[in-house]
Records
---
Amino acid sequence: MRPSAWLPLAVLSACAVCGAATRPHYGGTLRVEMRAAPATLDTATPDAAPLASLVFEPLVRLDASGAPHPCLAISWQHDATAKRWQFNLRPGVKFHDGFALVPAAVVASLRSVLAGAVIGAAGDTITIRAERPGPGLLLELAHNGLVFARDAEGALVGTGPFRLASWEPGRRATLAASADYWGGRAFVDAIELQMGRGLREQLVDLEIGKTDIAELGPAELRRAAEHGRAVWSSAPLHLIALVFAPGHAADPRLREALALSIDRAAMHSVLLQKQGEITAALLPQWLSGYAFAFPTAPDPARARGLTAELPASARVLALSYDPAIPAGRAICERVAVNARDAGLTVQVAPQNAKADLNLVEVRLPSLNAVRALVDIGPSIGLEALQPVGPTPEALYESERRLLEDFRAIPLFQLPDLYGAAGRVHVFQPPAITRMGDWRFENIWLSGAAP
Amino acid sequence: MTFRTRLLLLFAVTVVIAVVFVGAIVSTTTRRAFGRLDDQRVSAVVAQFRQELARRQREIVPRVKDIAEADSTLAMAICLSGADADPASCVEDVQPVAAAHNLDFLELVSSNGTLISSAQWPARFLYQEDWVTRRDDWNSQPPFLKREELPNDTALAITCVRVATVADRKLYVIGGEALDREFLSSFVLPTGMRALLYREPLTLISAAGPVQQTAALAPVISELRKRRGEVTRTVEWSGDAASAETFHAIPLIGPDNELMGAFLVGSSRAEEVGLERFLRRVEILVAVGGILLALLVSLWTTARITRPVEALAAGARAVAAGDWKTHVEVRSDDEIGALGAAFNHMTRELLEQRDRLLQAERVAAWRELARRLAHELKNPLFPLQITVENLQRARADHPDQFDEVFRESTATLLAELGKLRGIIGRFSDFAKMPPPQLETVDLNGLVRESLKLFEAQMQAAGVTLHLDLAADLRAIQADPAQLGRAVQNLVLNAIDAMPSGGTLTIRTAPQEGGVQVEVTDTGQGLTQEECDRLFTPYYTTKTHGTGLGLAIVQSVVSDHGGRIAVRSEPGKGTTFVIDLA
């Protein structure tokens, strides 16, 4: 061959190598770290939800815009009242133990989720009869309706792109790609998951290359961005609120004074790096549509007036926080500063069981606004609420009544935030859905052997 | 009060006054010395404070200036000068800078007064610090005192402000050093002294930590607030004076002339109070010792002086009571001894003179008695002699008339012999008066009984009787017959002294240890010579009587252990006073 022929060949080869480097390929182990440390992969546990979404699947999924898409159900319809729904199962789906997906398994999974609904199966069709009209049923199924079964040993098995290879409760888990996944095998061979890691530790691990995907808090977000990390976020799913402990701060004027003294905007701008949204409501704006109606602006003059009516001994509060809450300490200290301007003394200490009020973080329990409102109250220590109706107006009134005594003071709605290492690539975004689900089957790793 | 007591009191008072006086002088001198020493020590500590404060103020300026001129600060200023500046990116930048420059406080404030980052209170981001934007000349301003608000406290800080400028935008760098325990620990303090730092309002710290008892210092702080100048006051921490502490307070004034706090130098008074108490104890011991010494000295003195004097006084009283043989034992060769010797010599001389006098009086009395007897006897003897001579003549010359003359003469002889027997009988009675037979006698009753014998005589003589007999007169031990005779003799004398009438007054009265009887007449009275001789036997001023009446009265009174005296002046009557025990 003439020497001049080598050059184009060399160029072509180089292009091939470069192309291979940028083209998705299989292989590699994705290393992931998370704050939560669930003891089980129970689909009903909010802490396990992102992880569960890799192993289990719902009948429908939501896309980036929140619209439902087929998953285990290829189609569905409902009657005019939206009380009776019918879902047609996708054929050829198998559980990780090799058994086919059957309607009975779907029915058994959904019965624990859809309390009060009558669920039946006929052929490959699942019918659901709800007590009330349920336009949010699809959201509910997408968020909570994961289908599971139990294998011969009683372990949970799913139909997702990954199967559970090993499980050390609260510490470590290994997921292996399911070769028989109906949607096609995931690019990565396995996912190694480290649980119970703090945000700062995760950021350090990300920076030193010890992990590929790490959760980020607002304080870590800027640093990750400065280092060129890819940042993924969900919709605001985490409520950050101040909740008074039962039996403490009996005087409503004290609670209201504190609520009116808080400058959420400054904290959102500085401490949370403008992530998420400011709120004075329990449900996020994108879910309820009426969160904006709850006023968030501080009223220091009125706060001072209310404080002046209180005896001096009643103006001291102990505020506790969980160090795992993103920017929790900084938020509490800023609340103390704001409260001081109103004449209140707030003493901040972490994990104080005798505190008068606590900074809490609660993940949105459901994508169904009614269900979410019912469940979120007890999860933060408030009384269970029965909304007067499913309409936004009724939900607003119910939520307003729940919050009117200022026993809970919602502050922010924060998204899930993740940072990804440079070798992590997403074939088909998003890797994190709007609802916070992990779609890691779309991730491939550069540098892994093709 | 006895001489001994007076002497003891005198010594004791002298000692106490001396001790108190000396103690006062010593205490005052001690207090002044302590005061001077305290002033010197306080001045030294205050000088230390001023030097240290000045040093810290000097040293903070270059540190804050370095921060203001540092590249990182400049980058921050540039970052914040943009239209879309995000202060959030700088919120956490200041803490490591503060630590690196050894500053307790560091804040960055943007040109519009917004707090970007605070090392001491990170949560105060985006708060307004408008005070810093009111001046344009911070880079030439010296450090000043500022009150720093902290999450759980306030602090006093030496603060310096420097400005980093980018285009027309400023970034204020506010650096400060706390005046805290570490600051106080830098002082070298003498024993018994301590340094405190007061911060408004009502926070007090020492090198060891917070001081809880701020209430006791409230008067010092109050005066400090009023005067705005240095104040010195003593404070007692408890009821014990040893707990007192003198505080010298120097006000710490801020840039707007407000009182930020004070530097207090406390000087314990425990040592001074302890010394004063010790001195007081010594004073008391010395005073008590002095009083005991005074007691001993007074006892010794009285032994040397008072007892001999008392012995002399007792001797004099004994002599006055009639014991002229009293001898006083005084064994000293000083004036007291001489006085005792003189006293003894006096009593000896008195005894001798009394003996001589008695002898002379006895002789005089015998002579008087002999004279009176001779005179009394001579009267009846002369007629006896004449009568016997008449008988002899009649027998010789006129025998025929002898029987008649014999009868007349024998009658005359018998009468004169009767007179002689009477005279001799009275003399015999006086001579052999028996000792009194004592029994309990009511003197008033005896007087009344005696007076009954003279009622007719008094009436005939025109004598008015006046009785003044004491109702509470106690009974006495006496011989009623003899005493009654004595009273009768006095009454008879008084009646005889008032031949033309008058008033006879008899008075009885109780006396200390006895009774007194007074018999007073309003007669012609007696001369002094007559008074002196009145009680001599056979002495009389009357034309009748034996002259033994008053002698008998005196003898009776003397036998009863009493005394009789006479008061009289010519023309003013006579009073006889009998004192009986």
---
Amino acid sequence: MLTLRCPVCGIDADETELSPGGEAHLTRFGPDASDDDFHDYLFTRENPRGVHFERWRHSYGCGKWFHAARCTVTLEVFGTYSAQTTEPPAGIRAVIAEKRPGWSWRGLS
Amino acid sequence: MKRYSAFAIAREALRHHSGWQRAWRSPEPKSRYDVVIVGAGGHGLATAYYLGRRFGIKNVAVIEKGWLGGGNTGRNTTIIRSNYLQDPSAAIYEKSRSLYETLSQELNYNIMFSPRGVIMLAQTHHEVRGYQRTAHANALQGVTTEFISPRRVKELVPIINIDGPRYPVLGGLWQARGGTARHDAVAWGYARACSDMGMDIIQQCEVTGIRQTDGKVTGVSTTRGEIGCDKLGLVVAGHSGVLADMAGFRLPVESVALQALVSEPIKPCMDVVVMANTVHGYMSQSDKGEMVIGGGADGYNNYTQRGSFHHIEETVRALIETFPMISRLKMLRQWGGIVDMTGDRSPILSRTPLDGCFINCGWGTGGFKAIPGSGYGMAELMAKGYSPLTDAFGLERFREGRFIDESVAAGVAH
């Protein structure tokens, strides 16, 4: 079973305690955006076979949102981190670089 | 190719079965084809078949990174129905169901189509209203379904418990002409017919790149060399995003694992397909006697082809209340498949930003039932550039706000 450590309350939570919230670090385009940007924001999602960054909510625990970095093929978790950021912290990226050399995700690497 | 018939069985019985031919050839790839289809699952093979049989394009290769029918075609729970809500869905699924009725004869291959009937149980008042609405919509679409009472459900499914404390049966949406078919045989039958038309089915050949010149597709790079083509069809379900990335466009699709399990074989006890969408479970009995049970999909992206344990527990726990007799069954096997989910839970059959490249994906949790209709529509789209069956399912529908919202009919169970 997928287990993620909630960075807010520090508990190792099973996936039954968590709610997946989809792709992380989306740029939120509003009414002034171009059609392309708004379409991509609403519908287009990264669907990588490998490293992925996601939002999760510790719904049956502290109730807080957080981010997780995970491999979609092996379900290996590279780490979790605060929701109050617009990109993955350097520490998480270093862990991924060590375990998945050459990774990239939406322009990050 | 020799036809399969009662006479052929008698003939082979007399000569120790020495005369059976391979069902399809395994040729080396040629350097060029008119059309290359990526993905030798049901949808890809059906596309190739109808391209040749109905639209006269026979210089076709179907390439597959694994083995034929080894993806979701061999992993689903084989349910066939067409009781969808929206008109474009009803059109393509009903086309598909009607093609299934005569597919064994058409392909000269027994796909074991069994129109045993499908019940979708209404176990909440919300579902009762939802299915009554679907029954009315189906009446207008010319799809025969009816909303039936709990008593009639009990007559059709004697092993069901309609008075469960948590999930009482309040009625059901009954499609008498729905049913099941042998999933592998559908792929094998199409493959045999394609091979017979001179098409090349190339297994263990992974696409590593898509070649293009001036925005037009010119071929694919594969682990078995370069293959040129005028038109390219991407029909790869869960891995569509990976191929779209190679072709240089993005898809509104996310891949998740959907799982199923089968019990030990028991004597015949249920001769219809029962789907219980409230509890994310659906069940039918195979010809071998196994109870085939489908469960829910994981809520997060993954490519593991396994599925989570807690979904099995949720599915089985809920089904045991509705079918108390299965509580003592041992489960033999469990497996998962990668399904490609779109935002509106309807498929994408479309041109793409890359000229000459077409995509068929997003069937999500319910692709098996659609194989013939999807193949027919995709073949027409690739041959003529337009198909009334697929017109509403274009990629541009998201931008234009023309969703085909089937989250009620398709989001959970198939």
